[in-house]
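User: Show me an example of a complex going from sequences to structure tokens.

Assistant: Sure. Here are the input components:
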Amino acid sequence: MEVPVSHGVSGARPMVGINWGSSNFRAWRIGAEGKILDRVSMPRGVASLDRDGMRACIDELVSRWGPLGDCWISGMIGSNIGWADAGYCEAPSSVADLAAHSLATMIRDTRVRIIPGLACTGPHGGPDVMRGEEVELYGYLANSGAVAGDQFIVLPGTHSKWVHCRDGRIVDFFTSMGGEVFDRLTTQGLLSSVTDGSGTADAAFDEGCERARLSGLNLGSLLFGVRAQAVRAGLGKADAASLLRGLLIGGEVADALRLYPTLADTRVTLIGNPGLSAMFARALAALEIASEIVESEPCCIAGYGALSRAAFAAKARAA
Amino acid sequence: MEVPVSHGVSGARPMVGINWGSSNFRAWRIGAEGKILDRVSMPRGVASLDRDGMRACIDELVSRWGPLGDCWISGMIGSNIGWADAGYCEAPSSVADLAAHSLATMIRDTRVRIIPGLACTGPHGGPDVMRGEEVELYGYLANSGAVAGDQFIVLPGTHSKWVHCRDGRIVDFFTSMGGEVFDRLTTQGLLSSVTDGSGTADAAFDEGCERARLSGLNLGSLLFGVRAQAVRAGLGKADAASLLRGLLIGGEVADALRLYPTLADTRVTLIGNPGLSAMFARALAALEIASEIVESEPCCIAGYGALSRAAFAAKARAA
């Protein structure tokens, strides 16, 4: 069922890349030279699908695009709740290591490669893991070229990843759950009635960042301040959301500096949601740390391409 | 409608105390000498009641006990979502200050005193508030007598209160939301699938306490470790719950020591749920800080009695 592929001048071949997470399925048909020919996005994450449901997703792609050819899938599809457990590749690692650890399997009549997650011993001394984000990271590194010395990439989100790279390889990383804490505390409970919205990078946000940094206190003790200020000082709901974001992101930045002191002397790359990335950029700027915000999708596409090229190169060497 | 009251030898008079919070209504009929004659507990907090619903609760008490006489009500009933806003009494304060700030009003034909909350500028420099807990605190202080120098009382809970007293008066306090963070994160989201139960004071708990204390990291960055250990090191669900509790309570204790350095040299009093209090006691013991666990209900009863006596004494002085 494999379709013949023509290799582009730079080595980028036509392919399909799929990010199949817990909640969402996002697929790209990618032409030679890494051009996006079509994209499909469906709220059909693996957490809500049985194996027939997963087969149906692949069927939909095939009926739309024809045979998928060189197809790479990242995300929770490679976990124990997905199609097959692709395990984890241990950092420090390169894109070639990740490609070599990928799991070749069939979904319906389609041959796919499931990309493993990335594991490391984090800078905090404990285990840390990611699954799905590694494609964006390797794509960004492939696009931007190796940087000499330490380089830091942040993927802001529900579970933000702070990633330490050196010479174009991922050395290690740590995860902060600040985004989830924000979501949970503003959906239900004491702070839900005093906050509104997802926060903005404004003065109340700055106040939260500063409080997180200067107080030396844990989040648990800082959170109630949002409520107390609403009750006693008339803090508005939108400002309360920004203050809460500041406490969480400011604490995250303080932790990152504690774990990665050299981060202070670099230009940090932020990949992801522009609004959230802007908040991280502002928290970093308050400490005079420069950052750049990069779009996520081109990094993803470049990541699938880099994996495909790495696998093709390995096959060529083996032949 | 007021009933004649006979004053006991020690000055404790027959009365009714009601703790009327957001979720629950708990009332005690208290005899002379502070003996509990009857108790009523209903899941009818002010958050779910309109004014007729509140009147109906008082009607139920009257039909059961006859006229309520000297009746004191604490909790969210005195907030802007309750029967009447009783405001806050500013700490440092004594039980007499609190009694003097209470709000006399009628619910149906029953004359009641609504107890204000307690506000302070916390040791963190920001505002802090409590509503309901102040009765237990003043009750404990009335029962145990004034202690010279600093004294610390903790009310472990969803929103734990760490209270600093001196010479039998409440000086200030701070609130930690660690309990709510535990509840929210284990109900939904990433950690809900890897944790089970509410945690116990065991080795995994100790590990969490130590990590919170020694890492110097914010909670946001420590939380994901629970997930990573479950995925990579086979951490069981009950142990994961204990580890999470340890991270939260250990962080709370570290904050308390930062805010109240003299706490290290005292015997800390823990008032509340025995299981949760035992976890706080263990986290303190790891730092060689002694503590005692005290039952909540006798403190409440003593608190209503102390308020009633303070009001009676003030009235006697005025007469």
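The lines above are the inputs; the final block is the predicted structure for all two components together. Chain B has nine helices and 14 strands.
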